[in-house]
Every structure is written in C-alpha cells, then in structure tokens.
Amino acid sequence: MRKSTFLKLKMREARFISRALLSTHHPVLAHLIPMRRCNLACGYCNEYDHTSKPIDLEIIKGRLNKLADLGTSIVTISGGEPMMHPELDQIIHHIRVRGMIAGLISNGYYFTPERIKRLNKAGLEYLQISIDNVEPDEVSRKSLRVLDKKLRYLSEYADFHVNINSVIGGGIKKPDDALTVARRAVELGFSTTVGVIHDIDGTLKPLSAKEKDIFQQVKKLGNKDHARLNWFQDSIAEGKPYNWRCRAGARYLYICEDGLVHWCSQQRGYPGISLDQYTMEDFNREYKTEKWCAPTCTLQCVHQVGILDNWRDPQKTPAQIAEEQKNGKGVGEMIGAD
Ligand code: SF4
Ligand code: SF4
C-alpha cells in the first residue's frame, strides 16, 4: 500500500471513530454477503454452500444505499467467497461512491496480479485473509503452502491494507502453524492478527496449554492496535467468559444474501428483519438488547465495535424487554432510547 493511500485511510478512520464516539445513532460496521457460495468447505464453517447464485448488482446497490442512508461507516463484503461474485468490483466501487470505507474478507484463492489491480481501481481499502494451517488437511485448505504465491502478488500489487489472520482452536491440528503464518505475513509487509475459532454452533472451545502458548507468541508479533482492541481474547483463551456489551443489530449489522439483518454470522435469524424495512426503532431495540451469547463470543470485529459503547448505555435481556412490553411500555420508553 502506498504511503499516501495509507495516510488518507488513517485520517478517514480517525474521523469515523470520532463520529462513533460522539453519536450512538448510526451503524459503525456492516458485513454484507453478496453470495453464499464458496469454493472451499472448511470443517468448522457454517457460512457457505456450493450451489447458490450471486445476488444481482442492482439489489446489492439498493442495500448499500440503505446502509449509507443509515449512516454506516464501514462495509465489509464477506461470504461464502465474495471473490466469486462476478460484479465484486462494482460493489466495492459503490461502497466508495456512497462515502463508506470498503473492506473485503476472502479466502485468497482468486488473487492474481490483474484481479488485484482491478480491486485497486475499484477503491478497495481493506482486505483480510484467514490462513488456517501450513499444509492443507481435511479441516481446512486455507493453507500457507497453497496461498503463498497469492500473498506475494498482494505484497507486490495491492494498494489496499492487507491483514493476515491466523487461527487457533476449532479443530486446527497444528497450533504452531499460526506462528509460521504470522511470521510470513510480517515478512511480506502485512499486518497480522490471530483469532480463536468458534465451534460449528458459534460457541467457544477452551484452548489447550500449547495452543495458549502459541496464541500469546502470535499476538506479540501482530498488529499492536488489534492486540489492544482484542484483550477479550485473553479471557476466551483461558476458557473464561468475558463481560461486554454486544451491539449487534445496531452498531454492527450482518446482512445476509436475502437482505435480512441478523445479529451476526453465528446468530442468524435474530432479528431477521429485511434491511429495507429496518428502522431506528429496530436499531435502538437491538442496541439495548443484552445478547445471551456475549460471554463466550469470539467474533473480533463485533467486539471491536462494542468497545466504542461499552462504557455507556447498559443493556436489558430480551425477557426483560418482553416483560416491559407486556406491561404496556413503548419500546422507546422501555429502553430509554433518545
Ligand atoms: S473459505 Fe471461508 S466461507 Fe468458505 S468454507 Fe472456508 S471459512 Fe467458510
Ligand atoms: S455476542 Fe453478538 S457477535 Fe457474538 S455471537 Fe452473540 S450476537 Fe453474535
């Protein structure tokens, strides 16, 4: 990434963070799924299929327009494998046209010099690739040996920020691989983070002593900003619950391929309202709703968004909210929404 592009991006980020601290009335980050299909089938993943079609560009643009109208700061395109969408460049371009930061999460398989140059031109600002192991196995083929050539292309041609996420837990057999992946990422000039993988049902599996040790070593190699934002991971790695306020459905939105708003990839179905019809009343209700799954949640990006508001606006359980609704209080009064 060129220095001038990097500085511009950092300034835009600083503006968005100040805005998020000053006002709680807009989403900070939305994950948008333009197609569920994936070329891989990782053993721990519940977010893909092998048959679905790409969502039409005009429909995606309509969803991006709604996110922009809600005041969303960052849109990250995810999947499935979003690089399989034939109009990904136009999707990225439209995010930028609407003034939002454009990010992408990919398994890395489709990067060629030509494809990277097209993403530069479209205005991509962030890319994250998760690499699970060094050699492919039956759990995952997101492997350093397979992807190293792609990483070299990215190092040479990408004019966007690249983060390589290595992973621990969730059935990954060789935890030492996370260290090898992180070292290679640093060598190629990328930032690096480490994630604790959730189980197939989205809950936490405690790390072994060896996994914990590797986890700490990889964290030391990584991006200092991310390490500061991800201290929840220390509790999770110890198998201890973490106390925080998840703002999914409000400050963080997960928009599936059908255009429905969900709390996140692991809690699809709640609230399950169409983005078209999503109002600030929905936003305020979800902002104040305590999530039962929060104490063992491993989703880094939702934790990072949560930090912005963790110090304000305590939450209520869905049962408390339902009880108050039964007693005749309006949603606004009940959750103290302004
Ligand atoms: S590459 Fe990503 S979306 Fe595809 S199966 Fe693996 S984890 Fe799931
Ligand atoms: S705590 Fe929030 S982000 Fe984590 S699984 Fe639950 S709803 Fe999703």
List keywords for this structure.
alpha/beta; 13 helices; disordered C terminus; 40% helix; nine-stranded mixed β-sheet; binds iron/sulfur cluster; 9 strands; 338 residues; 13% strand
The description of the largest β-sheet is:
9 strands, mixed
Mean pLDDT across all amino acids: 89
Unreliable spans? 331-338
Supply Rg: 19 Å
Q: Strand order, main sheet: write it out.
A: 6-5-4-3-2-1-7-8-9
Q: List all distinct small molecules, including ions and cofactors, that are bound in this structure.
A: iron/sulfur cluster
What is the helix/strand order? HEHEHEHEHEHEHHHEEEHHHH
Structural class: alpha/beta
Instruction: Give the tally of β-strands.
Output: 9
Q: Percent of residues in helical segments?
A: 25-40%
Question: So what's the overall shape?
Answer: globular
Q: Strand percentage, roughly?
A: 5-15%
SS summary, helix count: 13
User: How far is the first residue's CA from the last residue's CA?
Assistant: 41 Å
Tell me what you see in this structure.
The chain has helices at residues 3-22, 57-70, 88-97, 113-122, 144-157, 176-187, 209-221, 224-229, 232-237, 280-287, 300-307, 318-326, 331-335, and strands spanning 29-32, 74-77, 101-106, 126-131, 161-168, 191-196, 252-255, 260-262, 271-274. The protein contains 13 helices and nine strands. Helix 2 (57-70) runs parallel beside helix 3. The protein is globular. It is α/β, with parallel strands linked by helices. Helix content is 40%, strand content 13%. Mean pLDDT is 89; it is low at 331-338. A nine-stranded mixed beta sheet has the order 6-5-4-3-2-1-7-8-9, with helices on both faces. The structure holds iron/sulfur cluster (2 copies). One iron/sulfur cluster binds next to loops.
